[in-house]
Amino acid sequence: MKKVSLFIIATQYDNVGDLLINKCLIDEISKHSTVYLDAKNVPEKFKSKLLEGTKNVYDLNAKTGYSLKGLGFIPLLFGRLGFTHIFKSPGPLGSNGSSLVFIKNIYISLIFGLFKLKGVKSYLVGNDILLQGLRDKVMIKFYSWICNAILVRSQKNLDDLNAISVKGVDYIPDMCFGYNIEKKEPETIKLIGISFRDLENESHTTEILRILSEIINTNKTEKFTFFYQVERDYRFNKYLYDHFKTNNLVSFSEKCLTWEELPFYNKTKLLISNRLHVLLLGIVHNSIPLAILNTNSKTEKILNIFKTTNLKEFIYDTENTSNLNEIVRFSTDVCDKIEKVRSEQKNIFSYKIKKLFK
């Protein structure tokens, strides 16, 4: 039987990390089925990157004139495209205290439910299920009744869902591990990349500057580049850079990193950040990740994913402060471990997606 997937794009459009995880999931699904993207109200540039380089991925609205984002789901429900699977964007899933977001999530679950009545298999893949209150628990239990499987990207999230008896849950690596890259040549490994989001915590900012000072000021040969891949991170990274700009080995990239510029990571040997997909892009390019975290909920996903993938030693926080020199010495053992994790997680990612189409 021919497999046909419907993919609802519902994500942030100003973050290359969100483009990355959507693209990786869509590309992997397209290995096993034809894919129609419900891209209504998605910026054209974002949508074009999702379609780029694909052979059997199509814009649903351009093909049919309909979308699930509104009453268009009715003709799609009874249409002739023959959907067999339905997905939505990966990433965080929860209300975050917002009634409007809760209603939107329930709306998508109802769409999933209606397609289930038509025999269509539905999946949540690569999500962090947020459980911040009763509404979130009600929402995910409703999804678990509808979905054939819910695949989350950390063992901690999996354990939390099992604890409240959510059915059909399993682990899948972050979609970033599915990113296909050209193997890096040794002579291109030159830079230490630095990129942070502002957690608006003065003591944490002071700690970031202390650690960066320890690394940069004791270095005599390595080059450092401050950069950002989310527009709103510009000001904070510029602020950090200004503390080291008199050092000739330190530079700042004024332009926000775009999808086309992701090969930048091929030039790096170490990534220092509190942004999840800066660190994971480092890993998939076989660079060493150094996560500088505090207890902010926005970075909890990094801690959970690093624990799941046996990379906790690469987290520098209040519980783990003795490993800095070990991480930045670039030993063969450290680099081999990063490559092993990258390879294992990529294989698990591909295997788990393939299973959805058996």
Automatic annotation (TrEMBL):
<protein>
    <recommendedName>
        <fullName>Polysaccharide pyruvyl transferase domain-containing protein</fullName>
    </recommendedName>
</protein>
